[in-house]
What we know:
heterodimer; A: mainly beta; four-stranded antiparallel sheet; 0% helix; globular; B: six-stranded mixed β-barrel; two-stranded antiparallel ribbon; 17% strand
Amino acid sequence: MVTFRNDSAFVRVVLGPGRSEERRIVTGLSDAINVEVVEGLKEGDELEEKPVKKIE
Amino acid sequence: MDRLITMLGEFLRDLRAQKLRTFLTVFGIVWGTVAIVVLLSFGMGFRQQLTVNMHGIGESVAIMFPGRTTRAWQGFGTGRSIRFLADDVHLLRTQVSGLGAVSPEYGRFSEPVRVGENIINVAVSGVEPVYGDLRNVIPEPGGRFVNGPDLEHRRRVTLIGDEVKRLLFGDADAVGKIIHIGDVPFTVVGVMKKKTQNSSYNRRDQDRVFIPATTFASVFGMPYLTNIVYRPADPRRAEEVQKEVRAVLGKRYRFDPEDVDAVFIWDTSEFDTFLFVFFLAFNIFLGVIGAFTLCVGGIGVANVMFIVVQERMLEIGVRRAVGATRGSIVAQFFMETLFIIGLGSAVGVLLSLAILGGLRYIPIREFVGTPVLSWEVAAATALVLGTVALAAGLLPARRAAGLNVVDCLRS
């Protein structure tokens, strides 16, 4: 769900039906499965899964 | 409009009068339409499936393996092994301009992997995050591939192939569980989505586990990479990029850039070129078969129309005598042919759709795919049908119009 790019982490936050925006977050501790979000999200924000790539 | 309705009425009357003959003529067109639509759809579906199978190893990626020099160069003799180090990847990334993405790959061909009492031997690969995209190793939803922080912190995490998952975990969930690779515990962060892969090196991806390259280097202590995977930014420039890669590595390891044995590069984009040419020929072949079948149907229609013209000589004569133009005679017979062919092709298309729908349930998808009724197929069919209709309609109609009025009346 989290995208790591150039030392920063991003997630896509759902804004409404069919709309979402990419937001930068600051991550804290992680055990590789779960990751602590220190900054950038508030309680109750819904996140979008990454689309699954299809081979064609 | 009135004339059209009259013609339609005449046509239907004709149909009723000659049931068997009409059925056989229409059937010729139905058969031809089915042949061309089903054959071409099959060809398109086959191409699509084969492309997917071939892309199981990645889309236009090249995989380079270490080799031995076979040419003397700058005072060095032949037969020197050229081997890759981890920082060669960085070198390529910065020095080769046409490179889109590149990942190192460390490999162990067979390592025991254990969960509880289940032990299997699998291939272990140490890779970078971009490898997943390059080689189409796609995690199932709910999991992920190796990522940047994994690499940075040398985490002991792994994405496992779907076959490995099945053998170790069965139907149970694997993500979050611990597996032991050798004696080292790793957390499963993802399971590969099932895919078909019809070419491979070092086992198929379903039988492999992937871990971060940095972790691999420290756990197994192997200095050399087994291979490097890259994708050119522009697949059409694959050959130039290959030359650049050889030049850059040749400078570092002192070998002749023309010495293709020093570094073996397997360019999978050659598949795509091959597939394109092969299926172009294959589909033309299928199309021609379909078109001939349809032409035979068309000849049938034209023959029947010639007979109809013969039968209606008197009618044509009377009509011409009372002032009908040649044009209206042509239109009458031409429209009648179009009705027959229109009816036949409509039934044919419906029948083809039914056949294509039925084919979906035959489990041959992995090998030849499911037929696809694409716009190319529709366009080709329409083109052939149009040509056949024009030829089969115009010839008898012109014959009818060209008849001598007196001869007609005399008959």
